[in-house]
Design brief:
The complex is a heterotrimer of chains A (341), B (110) and C (513).
Chain A (H helix, E strand, L loop, with lengths): L2 H40 L9 H11 L10 H20 L16 H20 L4 H34 L8 H6 L8 H21 L11 H4 L9 H26 L4 H5 L4 H29 L5 H32 L3
Helix pairs in contact in A: 1-3, 1-9, 1-11, 2-9, 3-4, 3-9, 4-5, 5-7, 5-12, 7-9, 7-11, 7-12, 9-11
Chain B lengths: L4 E2 L4 E2 L1 H20 L23 H4 L8 H6 L1 H10 L4 H20 L1
Antiparallel strand pairs in B: 1-2
Chain C lengths: L4 H20 L3 H29 L2 E4 L20 E4 L1 H24 L6 H20 L3 H19 L6 H32 L4 H7 L4 H17 L8 H8 L2 H26 L8 H19 L6 H26 L4 H34 L15 H15 L5 H16 L1 H26 L15 H19 L1 H17 L1 H9 L3
Classes of the chains: A mainly alpha (341), B mainly alpha (110), C mainly alpha (513).
Chain lengths: 341, 110, 513
Amino acid sequence: MEVTELISLITRSILGTIVLALVSIILGLFYKGVDRKIAAHMQARVGPPIRQPFRDVIKLFTKENIVPDDAIPWLFNLSPVIALSASIIMMLYLPVGDIKPMLSTEGDLILILYLLLIPSLCLVIGGFSSGSPFATVGAQREMVLMMSYEFPLAIAVISVVWRLREAGIDVPFSLSSIMENPIWNNVGILGIIGCIILLIALVIVTPGELSKVPFDAPEAETEIAGGLLVEYSGRNLALFYLADAVKTLAMATLIIAIFFPYNLSSLLSISGYPAYALDFLFYLFKLFLVILLSVTLIRVAVARLKIDQLVSTYWISVVLLSLIGLVLLMFDRLACLKGWY
Amino acid sequence: MLERIFTGSGFWNPLIWLIAFVVSILIVLILRSLGRPGFKREGDKTKPFLCGNIKDIETISPRSENLYWGFRESLKGYYKVMERFHSGDIRDYIFWFIFVIVLLFLMEVL
Amino acid sequence: MIQHLPALIIALPLLTAFLMPLIGRISPTFRKLFAFIMIFLVAIIGILLVHEVHSKGIILYTFGAPQPGETTPSSLKIPVRIIFEIDGLGAFMVIVSIILAFTAMFYALPYFKEERGLDRFYALLFLLLAGILGMELTGDMFNFFVFLEIASISASALIAFCIDRSETLEAGIKYLAISSIGALFFLLSVGLLYGEYDALNMAMLAKSISNTFIDKMALILILGALLMKAGIAPMHMWLPDAYAEASPPVTLCVIAATQASMYGLLRMIFTIFHPSIDIAFLPALIIALSLITIGIGATMTLIQNRLTRAIAFAGVAEMGYILLGVGTAMYAGIKGYGEVALEGAIFHVLNDAIDMGLLFLVAGSVYLATRELDMNNLGGLARRMRFTAITFLIALLASSGMPPMNGFASKLLIYESTYALNPILSIIAILASILMLAIFVRIFYSVFLGPELPNLRDARDPPVLMLIPMLILSILIIFLGIFPSYAIDKLVDPAVRSLIDAKGYVSAVIGGG
């Protein structure tokens, strides 16, 4: 690798991380507030103001950071730090609006899949090292949840990438290629139905990924007294809260990057800096829609599932759904090859 | 040595990822230091949150065989079949070996 | 001296093995010193050999010829002597075996403080090493069988070494029975080939093999035997028994033997049989078996309660990953995504060996500190055994394939090549990866986290001499994780190229293809 490219990459990774850390924390907390406000209105109450999560975080930072006697201190304190760091790093590899990911040539979709695991893994290890039986039960439920939703998530992502490869796209795992070649442009009618099914499967995976109702058995406040976060307080809890907010942002950006990479600026033929601003606003709007559909609506509409119902929901129902989507995509490729369109 | 891996369908550059991760951890640590560091040890603050009059926490902590109950419960049928296969009897092991060789043979001949 | 390196690397362990009882009579300390010096020498010879292969190409060594490089001396028309033929793949496997054996020996020296019969132990360990290295270097089919037997018999005796539990003896006998039957089927196949072509040399056979019925039978028998020795389902059941009951240093060497069987598979399929024989269903069957192996390995671990048995089932799943890459390369040919798959599989051999090795060493430290391997009776060890807990965390992340450890790099290669064949393959591989993460986190909690148990209050980190091999493996994991392209360029690429170039293998011995 040439020196100039290396230096450009290093500056991008350092400055980009700092900028994205600020942007994603602010945006993440903002959307958390929006989510709470809309959920409140759906439940016929007024709800907290949109800047409430900011106040929550500041309040948490002023509380005491209690480390229980029975906990393993170094793991207990390290887990929130790693969780938030990994969530921030994810944004470096995801496209925002029309801008390619900051480090688009250094990491691809498989890296994103694994980085999505790290915050949940840190929650699990933090819960396990809390020294409380409630935390242990919550943490192992979170791990079971991770095992369950990974199957349909992998099916959805790999099917789309495979179909892109069969359509002749180079380097299909890289997010810049996915962004430039929307899946809807490269498939026929069967493929469109398949992609819609995969999108539905991803929308069902998202609340599981973020531990929201109906898949929040790990943090069941009413059953296990707060689950894996029961012994966390003060700045550690604030970091986990922030990690959750940024992870919501990242997951929504992933869905947008794979399924809705369209931009207004190409439609209206604007270019230059106004185009960036317009695309960013459109991206914020798309984020709003995705978070509304996958987190807020589902959260308010249904009740919590039991842990073994959760496993069978994902492993049987959602997997079947995504497999149907995959099969439709395979038929679509066959149809394209035989020239039925 | 500083190259990225290019697998024909994707990339991975661990060095740049590591730099970004270290920077990210530093930012988070700076953020964390804005919070309140210690706590005053008074009362039962640092005892685990339990209900009831429990003397030994070891007796009520989940053991390793209780973990992942939900997962094992949902796949109960599969596990019953699998445990029967892993019987520990060496005659079964030899059976499976001969089975695979016969399977290969039959698939070849037919 | 450089010329004779291939012979030295086999002769030195054999000599050590036979001298060990004599040296042991002098004093136990002198025996340990002797063992350590010898393994160090073997490691150096191995590194020199690999360097030779990378700079000079395929190295030949004919036993008994006036000049080691001559394959047909004294006007013989065909090579009849035992010839060692070392190419990129052989060099790679030598490195894997030496890493495992060196760490195992280093760990074993302070591990067995009070046992009796240690001179037999060290002798058998060096015999096992000689067998494994012989399997990886030889260019002669019957010689491969001989070294396979040497490795199997020494390994089964080593597995049964600690006779205070009866399960250990049972595991040793099972390993012996399984290996003998597998090796006998292999011998049958070698006999078939010899009867047909009058040649035992691998290069000669590669040149002469054609698409006849007997050759296909020979391939089937060899595949069956080697797949079983490599621990592929549904013949994998000996693997958890053997790995779980053996002492950790022995398990590392048995892992090396399993990887050597996988090497044998690669050699037989790609160099000897592949260009000529055409069995259409074979790649599909191998891919199917690998998926079953991954599935069984990843799911069966969840119900194990014994520490070493849980890690062993995870090892079964890892062998499935390697076979998945091999199967994809067989199906697609070694070009395009097939080549990437083979790269991933071979790199994963190295990564899997190091990760599993570190996991078993940690299990050994836990056993040494607490004399307990049942996870229901362990807990809370991270407070007192901090170093062990951190190394287990590193091995956990590496085995599940989390960035930036080495497991991620090789699994990335496997995912991004098998998806092109069929997306289901990649999906099952990713799913198994998350199951492995769940498994190891559960083990981590049961052993290290949780409340402190009263009967384990005097558990301590193992002595420094045992921490050093764990440190070496952890540093290797992190190094290979941060600089994977270095390892791929220097080690894996020569191996893959030597498999692509099957004709080169033949022409090195016979000259002129």
